[in-house]
Amino acid sequence: MKLDKDIGISLGFLAGTTFGSGVAFLFRLQSYGVMGSVAIFGMIGAIAGLVIAKSRHRMNG
Q1: What is the mean pLDDT of each run of 10 residues along the chain (61 residues)?
Q2: DSSP alpha helix (H) spans, 1-61
Q3: What letter would DSSP give residue 28?
Q4: How many whole angstroms separate alpha carbon 30 and alpha carbon 20?
Q5: Which region, left, alpha or beta, applies to residue 2 given φ > 0 means left and ψ of -120 to 50 means alpha?
Q6: Torsion angle of alpha carbons 42, 45, 49, 51, nearest 10°?
Q7: Residue 8 burial (C-beta neighbours within 10 Å; 0-12, 13-18, 19+)
């Protein structure tokens, strides 16, 4: 399976939201804190997934 930008964004978003949910759970945040944490880490993950997919595409030709 080749890692293109759509898959990179999707996997990054999934990983980011999962990580954000875990952070919110560990810090025992309330509803707005959970939504903020999941949203912020989801966006960071999506951007990171896009960057990784583009860099791997550039390295592989």
Answers
A1: 85 96 95 96 96 87 67
A2: 5-26, 31-60
A3: T
A4: 13
A5: beta
A6: 120
A7: buried
Q: Which two tokens stand for residue 59?
A: 């390295």
DSSP 48: H
16 and 51 in contact (C-beta within 8 Å)? no
User: In residues, how long is the chain?
Assistant: 61
Compute CA 2 distance to the chain's CA centroid, rounded to the nearest angstrom: 19
Global pTM reads 0.88
* pLDDT for residue 1: 63
- Which two tokens mark 31? 């509803």
Q: How far is CA 42 from the centre of its chain?
A: 4
